[in-house]
């Protein structure tokens, strides 16, 4: 009997899952891959398209370059899952059945019910979003003057917000246009929760790119030209990009598995509360189970160096890729009635770009807490190039290199 595995989403988790399943599964299995786009988007570099829309060619990889000929691809929007019938509902298509389903639907922007925010703010979760931000910043700059510069506000000083502000600043500097950029953050620090030296180095880069940063500023209401804060301060904007947090995909809202804000709880083998549904990447909250099994010597050493395996992995490309690389083996084991292996997240370090600059922190194997300069820039580029090279082709990676 043929076992059917359905993979949902073509982000990092989805691509890595399909490829690890293709490597691990025997011949009596079918893989069906469903996603709303027929390409993979290198999302963690999509902010480069704000500065230069031509970069789109470098960050889009057709699914045919990523999967084997035997894997069937269905383009469509997943609207839900029926875990009793083991079917996936796809908008405008017949339902797709499965024996095992791997959910890799990523995340959506969280608006926290703030009045007017979803209606008026731009977001950055796909290629179209990046191109819209480019167009709106360009249009605002055309209408502006040195006396009355365009006001671009970015809400949320996490990875997405910082890198977005950096690209708007690079656009302003390359075009020499009158644009003022403000990065606003609710917490009292930028890149909240991270190391202070790292935060300081990022702040330094932002200041040097003339990006004004305001912390402790909680947005309470937004209309078509003004942001209101909890302390009643008002800020006028021409372009407002909201990058204040993520939640799970709408498709998981009514699925009968345990979720939090539409992200699926999964144990450290990626299994959700339903035995036939696995979840990875931003779509999942993957429990880090210290009891999950013996760590290898290398992993044990890494866990000592970076002792952050006791929480869920952060919503990052790195975690999504790794989970995808491991999920194939677990599905193969589940099919054969063998115990799945436990996975734990090892932080290999963090890299943030601010325009052409980058800041690196806690990079595994490098005995420096935080550093920037050419070393950090090359490291950031090489992570993106390695992903493109290993998942599709080294030629595509080489072409993308200058724009990463
Ligand atoms: C601007 C920006 C910069 C970032 N920078 C970094 C960084 O420097 N380092 C880092 O590690 N991380 C970074 N991130 C975070 C990183 O991109 C995410 O954590 C990562 O993309 C998660 O991978 P994923 O596969 O879970 O989800 P995604 O990459 O979001 O993929 C989800 C997939 O599911 C598809 N999909 C979604 N909903 C549906 C549906 N209903 N039906 C069908 N298909 C659907 C999407 O089209 C997509 O193919 C950044 C994110 C952004 C937006």
Which range does the strand content fall in?
15-25%
* Small molecules held by this entry: flavin-adenine dinucleotide
Number of strands: 25
**Rg of Cα set:** 21 Å
CATH architecture assignment of the largest domain: 3-Layer(bba) Sandwich
* Separation of the first and last Cα atoms: 45 Å
- Which term fits the overall shape? globular
Q: Output mean pLDDT.
A: 93
In the CATH scheme, the class of the largest domain would be Alpha Beta
Give a structural overview.
The protein is α/β, with parallel strands linked by helices and 404 residues long. It has two domains: 3-109 and 247-348, FAD/NAD(P)-binding domain, CATH 3.50.50; 117-244, FAD/NAD(P)-binding domain. It contains eleven helices and 25 strands. The chain has helices spanning 12-24, 48-51, 56-59, 117-120, 127-142, 159-175, 196-208, 297-305, 317-335, 374-391, 394-400, and strands at 3-8, 29-35, 39-41, 60-62, 72-75, 78-82, 87-90, 96-97, 100-103, 107-109, 150-155, 179-184, 211-214, 219-222, 226-229, 234-236, 239-242, 246-248, 259-260, 263-266, 277-279, 284-286, 350-354, 357-361, 370-371. It has a five-stranded parallel beta sheet with strand order 5-2-1-9-21, with helices on one face. A hairpin with a 4-residue loop joins strand 15 and strand 16. The protein starts with a strand and ends with a helix. Mean pLDDT is 93; it is low at 292-310. Flavin-adenine dinucleotide (FAD) binds at residues 9-14, 35-37, 43-44, 46-47, 77-78, 104-106, 124-125, 159-160, 163, 249, 251, 281-283, 315-318, 320.
